[in-house]
Design brief:
alpha+beta, Beta-Lactamase, 5-stranded antiparallel beta sheet
Amino acid sequence: MPHLWNRISLKYRIALTIFLLEAITFTLVLTIMPAGFRQAAFTELATGEQAVLRVLGNVSYQALLSQDYGFLASQIELLQDDSHIEEVLVWDARRNRVVASTAPELIGQPVPPLTDGEWFYWRTLPVGSDREQLGEIAIRYSRRPLLVALERARTAGWGLAVMGMAGVALISLLMGRMLTHRLTVLTGAAEALASNVQYVPTIFRGQDEIARLGRAFDRMTRRIRETMTALKESEERFQRFSEATFEAIFFHENGIIRDVNENLCRLSGYSREELTGRNALELIVEEDRPLVMEHIRQGREAPYEATGVRKDGIRVPLELRAKSFQYGEKKLRVVAVRDLTERKQIEAALRESEATTRALLAAIPDLIFRLSPEGKFVEYLSRSKEEVYAPPEVFLGRRIDEVMPEHIAQQALTYLRKTIETGIPQRFEYPLEIKGANRFYEARLVLTGKGDVLAIVRDITEREAMQQALRRSEQELRLIVEAS
């Protein structure tokens, strides 16, 4: 046999070697590779299925939280392009009702039984958090496309083997290498998708099953990536704006506005399109712009006030509070803006009211004291310190019986308790010696809404003197009448 082999021409030996290698290769390919390819294909499909379930789970989680299933329905509709997916169900675990499905007749119905068949199987994923399961996703996958593809691949392999053994060994070897190479690329793309790394397209050409599977995988991966990107951006935007729901908010990069909420549009009078790309300093009056620039340069986060200017030129008092953060490779600054117009008006009205009240009280000749329920002097109002019994620093914060003479203090405390117990204003008179002169006072006690007592003290010395003079005159007149 070795001698016969050596007698054969080199080109035939090469051809025979190639033929034998081709036969062995195709025999191995057609006996071993189908099982490996089948396992690899199912593994890749399982990886893709898990990726689809995770992405759809994120969308379903937001939809079940918000009870808004429009975006979820659109994503389910995209999955119908995949020939491996026959049916998709999403149901609310709290109501045990289907909320989204590729079969519209199931929406609002109880969850149907999920049983595997010869040509299909179900994949499910719970949706929720550690504390509560909101619902569940179920996708029915068809085995038919992959099994048909595998069968076609096997049949084509036998045909290639017969043709190759007839003289196309080199082409068969190249096709085998091409098949192995594309499977490697497809597996790498699936692993990249499963690892959540950058999208890696397979870029397969041709009309064979692997090429079609690769293009279908590319479409599915691209849509999943687009959906994940849109979902991530939506979640980030929702999170940013949910931090301050009642304030006007915008994001700027080095002073250039990148995004705004509707509150800022209403406050400034500009549309979202007009604000985006505009310099934020244009919304501030010129004299306050250096203050704002200082806060931006130093990255201050404490709130401060500045005057804004609307599109119509009206000035608006504002409170601004900003915070810098990293968004991808960009350094942005979020600014919360609050309109202080109403607060400023209230403060002005309050100051005016307080000034009016103090002017009125200053015009009243009476002494006014605010007393605590225990009888302590809390506050007083007098036109002059000379009119009070003792200096304010002596009696403020002290009880009546610690400042006033005992007989007056006991009388005042008695009426104070009666005012608090009954809620009825009380009145009493008392004499008091001030700077060597005897004077008479009338005190009126009124309960305030805060539980304190307001004491209004009036000097009635002149009235008391007139009454005493009148009584003396009456007594003298009576004596004259009796003597006559």
